[in-house]
Amino acid sequence: xxxxxxxxxxxxxxxxxxxxxxxxxxxxxxxxxxxxxxxxxxxxxxxxxxxxxxxxxxxxxxxxxxxxxxxxxxxxxxxxxxxxxxxxxxxxxxxxxxxxxxxxxxxxxxxxxxxxxxxxxxxxxxxxx
Length: 129
Description:
Elements: H1 25-39, H2 41-49, E1 55-58, E2 61-64, H3 72-90, H4 94-100, H5 106-118, H6 121-128
Antiparallel strand pairs: 1-2
Helix pairs in contact: 1-2, 2-3, 2-5, 3-5
């Protein structure tokens, strides 16, 4: 009798982000990072650096570019935050979704989930000592 191993387990799709239940946070965090990077590395940059706000140089100062002046690249790059928010929120349980539902950016969502599971930077530093 041969034993067949399941190739795919629940939540292990290359097309659907892994479900985040709040358990095994370190494992889930890495899976979610890899998933976002596999879709587009710019999505992960948006999560870590915040959303792109197209700018224009006016009087030697960087100012937000009016939306009607955005070019195709500005539009594409600004969409990365929406894509990241979709990936993050799509794969959450209802309780986890409500925790991040008021966040305006993917970076805020990611930070909220991280702080909830790992604590603030100060708490994490104190745990290491």
